[in-house]
Every structure is written in structure tokens, then in C-alpha cells.
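Researcher: Let's run the pair from yesterday's discussion. Sequence first, then C-alpha cells, for each.
Model: Starting with the first of the pair.
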Amino acid sequence: CAFCWMILGTSLSVRTQESWSSNSYELEGLWGPEAVQQFPTATRSVPHPSSQLSGFEAIPGLPVAAAAEGNQPTLEPLRLVETGVSVELDLEHRQKGLQWFPAYELSFRGEYEWLHESPDRGTVNFEFPLAQAGDSFDGFSVTRNGEPVRVETRDGVARWTAEVDGAESLRFQVAYRTRGVTSWTYQLMMGTSEVENFRLAMR
């Protein structure tokens, strides 16, 4: 009867979906996840005004240095004025059980330019998220004007710094290789932030 065929069709659909999800999860453990590359950020530390007034009194009987104790510097974001991303995807279907899944190896190269608009000298801190971009990163590197930059990676984020003497642009190149399954996504700015001069080339 028609009702019986409908029940059978629904049962097969549910079992197929469960099998797909299970096999996909296992393949991700072997090959890598659905990768998402988030955008990098740059900030500079702006000292709290009171921390620069040591020797004066803000409150009678309490030195400013003591009053400002515990005040953390403000982190001021730099404008990301240009982004150029180039991605090479090498598609290779992988079989798990009776099902085939789209898997890939990926070569990533990103070129980023930030604008430091303050005339003050200081240190700029850069962060490049890696937590969702894959499980392994071969040949990860950051360069500036062709020279390697010292990078520290912890908690799924690559971090580096640069000293500035005043207003200037800061351009860095980031490259790595990884692999994943099903999809690869590049995430732009969060919320309603403006994206300037963005280019993405895939092949």
C-alpha cells in the first residue's frame, strides 16, 4: 500500500542520513574537518592615561600610580585595509563504507595590510586564528618584506608582534597547507564591520 511504501522510504532516508553522519565524523577524524579560516586581527596597546601620571595625586592621600593599579591598557584595533587570499584546492574523493565523500588538500596564502594611524611609537599585536582552519598545518609561515617573522602558536591562534615608530602601513604574508572534507570557508569580518579591498582567488 502507499502508506507502507511511505514508511519504508522514510526509514531508508533516516538510516542513510545516520550512516552519512557517522561515516563523515569518522573521516573527519582521519582526514580533517570542514575547515573555516577566520580573518586575522591587529591591535595596539594604549596605556591608561592615569598610568602615565606617576608622582601626582588623583585622590587625596592616594598616589595616582597606586590608584591606577590594575588598570589594563586599552586594546585599539587597527584597520585591515587590504586582504588578498589565494587558495589551491586539490579535490580527492574518499570512500567510507558504501559512501563517497569530497575530501581535499589545500594550499593557503594570504596577504594582509593594516594601517597604523597613530603618530605614537608602540607595539602592534597580530592574531591569526587556526582553531577551525584544520587539524594540521604544514609549512606554516608568516613573512614581512620577504623576511620570516617569529610566530608563537597557542590555543589555536598564531601570534606575532611588530614595532612601529608612528603612522605607517604594515603588510604581512601568511601561508600554510592543510586538508579537510566537504567544504572550505573563509570568514569575513564579524557583525557589520566594513570589509575593504578584499580579493579571493581559488583554483
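Model: Moving on to the second of the pair.
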Amino acid sequence: FSATATGYTAGSDTLEVTDDESSAVTIIDSSEGAPGFVPSSSSGWITQSSKPLAYLENTHKLKIINQVSGTQAEWVFSDLPNGQYKVATTWWYTPSRATAPYTIGWGDFGNSSGGVLATKECDQTQAPDDFTDGDGWTWEELGTVNVEHGELKVRLEDGIGHESKNLIADAVRIDELRQEHDEEQRDLRVHQVADHALPEDRA
């Protein structure tokens, strides 16, 4: 860009703008046998496929009357670089759905080790609507958390609702938020014009 001012020598310089925050995305699906997805073996989960509104058309469904109290499903992300992550999930929504309580944590969620990082309840009768990815799937954010132990887990707890309602376990997505430089070294640079645009009597 260029700039002029009365009593100053005109000059020009460049404005270099670089987005220094990028993300690396990892998704664990809930299809049968998907690595990292662990449905409760004691509850009556039903595996469903060819469902267009489910992520990759696969999902798990559990009727509230058939759930055994406790963790209903878990998504485990291992060997992660420590840093900040945005966590989101999606589900196949219909009026027959329950409210889904999610807990983000690590280790044993503080029972004997690890801890809880965030919690959120999602109304699965409504569509996830926080953002849409490049493939057209919609997602609901569960929280942004700091990973310090190389592991992040998402637990789906007991569904909330009438016993006839259904709880859905679908995909969970994490976005690693990367800061390439410290705040003072960001690649958003405005180079000063003409060496601070010296006054004419000093140019």
C-alpha cells in the first residue's frame, strides 16, 4: 500500500496477511467396529446403516428403556499432540430422540485418574447447527478444551427423556487449533510506511 501526508515523504510498502491459525481434523465414526468408538456392551444398542441423515449413513440407536445406567458410549482419541481442540458431534435427529449428555475428559474422567474438561447436553430432536463442514455435514460444538496428556475422550452418558425415546451415538469430531507463532510474532504484519514516514526536513 502507499501513503502520503503533508510534511512527510511519500512512500509505499506491502501489507502481508497470513492466517496463522489452522486446524487438523480427526473424526471417529460410530459404524460397527470403528476404531476409537466403544458402545456399552450392557445396553441394547442397535447398529443402523443406510440412514441418509446419519454421518456416512451409519449410526447407533438406543431406546431409553433399554439403557443400563452409566456410560452409554465413548469415543477415544489417543496419541494427540498437546494443545487446544474444538470438539463437536452430530446425530440423526427426529422428534423421537432424547436429550444426550456428553462429557469431555481424559483418563478415567477423575474417578481414579484423569479429569473432566467440559460437559454439554444436546437435544437430539433438533438438528446440530453450529457449523457445516466442507462435505455438507452439520455439527454441534461440545466445547473447546486443552489437551495436556495426549488423550481426549468423549462420553455419552444416560439419555434423558421418556422411556420410549431414543438416544443416538454418531460421529465425534475434534479440530486441533494450531497457533504457528506467539502473539507478538503473528503473521499479520503491517509494515510501517517508508521507514516511519520521516518528515521532509529529515528525509
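Researcher: Give me one sentence on the second I can quote.
Model: The mean pLDDT is 83.
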